[in-house]
Amino acid sequence: MANNIMNCDLLVLGAGGAGLIAAVKAYDVSGGKKIIVLEKAKKPGGATTFAHGIQISNSKWQIAAGATSQNNSFPGGGSGPAQDGETVKMRVAGGPAKGGSPGRGSGRDVSGQFFDWLVEKGGAEKYFKVAAQGAGMMGKGSISMPNRMDEYKNHPDPSIGPGWMGTYFVEKMLECCKKAEIPVLTETRAKKFITDANGKVTGVLADTKDGELRVNCKACFIGAGGFGADYEKLQKMWPLDYNGKSIHRFSPPTNTGDCINMAEEIGAALDMSAAWVSIGGPAHHPYSYSIYRMMWQPEVMYINLNGERWIDETEGLSTGSSSMLVMQPKAEMYAVADDDMVETLGQRLIANPPEESDIPILKKFRQDIAYEASLDEKGTKGNRTKKADTLIELALKMDIDPKAFLATIERYNRFCDNGQDSDFKKKPEYLKAIRKPPFYAFWGQRFTQCTHGGVVINENTEVLDANGKAMPGLFAGGDGVSFDGKGGGGLPGAVYNGYIGGIAAGKYLTKI
Q1: Which residues contact 156 (CB under 8 A, 6 or more apart)?
Q2: Rg of the chain taking only CA atoms, in angstroms
Q3: Which CATH number applies to 280-448: 3.30.1490.20, 3.40.50.150, 3.90.700.10, 3.30.1370.10?
Q4: Alpha-carbon gap, residue 220 to 23, rounded angstroms
Q5: Which residue, of 110, 240, 271, 475, has the fewest CB within 10 Å?
Q6: CA distance linking residue 169 with residue 150, whole number of Å
Q7: What confidence category does residue 380 fall into, taking pLDDT thresholds of 50, 70 and 90?
Q8: pLDDT in tens, 347-378
Q9: What is each CA distance from 229 to 89, 234, 248, in whole angstroms?
Q10: CATH of segment(s) 4-275+453-511
């Protein structure tokens, strides 16, 4: 028997973007029905906290500014480091790697309606504006967030949160929850649905620090994320990618798919064949952002841990390099450059930054390189930037056979001198010899973001059973759902599903 019992009209599982938006919107629509939010982690926010941004269409701000209608769909811009033209491969369960983002939630575009509602909550004008010209992934007339939130303005990596749109959405929704007296119970792990004789959800059992909790409810919204922290399931679904080799995972450690399993237990349909995960690389995470950007420049030379080139470096962080990197020893690599190249690439990044807000960090590229390289000099060995006055010394610091490394450098320099890459057909304009000391090697690995897909929902975010019938009073959204066979995840999916789900759940509560 549960140690504690609570009662509410709507129970929300997960205090990330989808769950918090659904909770607040349902409260507004239902006229103030009692709502409770359960969160497994110590802090709310989930993957949404790290999300960079989404495209907003047809908001009142844009209309007032005379902006033309933006794309009526959600583009990329989820909870990882990919941004500004970078591409990551999408691993779809049961299929090959696919480019682009699978569906983020079909149907009407509600991004403008969501943003208008967000603006009504107050404070948006401090951070958001209608872009007067194209910037990064967003174009003229888009809603941009040119600077990260004050509390996070000194964060060393501008490509991910906290402090961007995702964080703002979370913090604004938490502020609204507090005003509406919606409790957000952290460190509370939902573990089992309670149903009545007809199979309708009437509550949830959860584990807390103080024992088992039972929450009785009239409706429930599942917004608990995907299973990006369940390595066993990741290996089962994508064995080529999750093979024990190096990979930096951005998925919150609490995202183990608990609610997907809970929903399946009560008869909800799952579509794991359409589940997907974005994987990219090589990336320098969790180290310096300025170096991460430098590694993407086409002039650098990529080598694996055997000291061999393995791809045309102009692939950068795209699908090809990530697909090939997993085949390399430990799925790790180094981007090699000499001093002239480092200076040229660093100054280019400052002059043409992916985003204006990147400039202060990119200007520190020499300091970032010096800091990482100094760790070796202090005796702190590890995977990071290496610096040496000779190529042999650099090879030894990378723990690579100097003979193999020197042979690779000599062959590559001949290609540069002749203006023709006989191995990988790299464009001549990017062939720059590596000769001037000191020499540098920037360590890289793959990265993976959150998983998307799972519980099948309809366009109203209602959970469907195995027969395709809506399960009364049960709604879901975010990374843990599949919509018409498409994973509806990332920050766009959280906004879409959370907003639509909040409306649907709110209306449901007014009718029972």
Answers
A1: 288, 289, 361
A2: 24
A3: 3.90.700.10
A4: 10
A5: 240
A6: 15
A7: confident
A8: 999 999 987 778 899 999 999 999 999 998 88
A9: 19, 8, 11
A10: 3.50.50.60
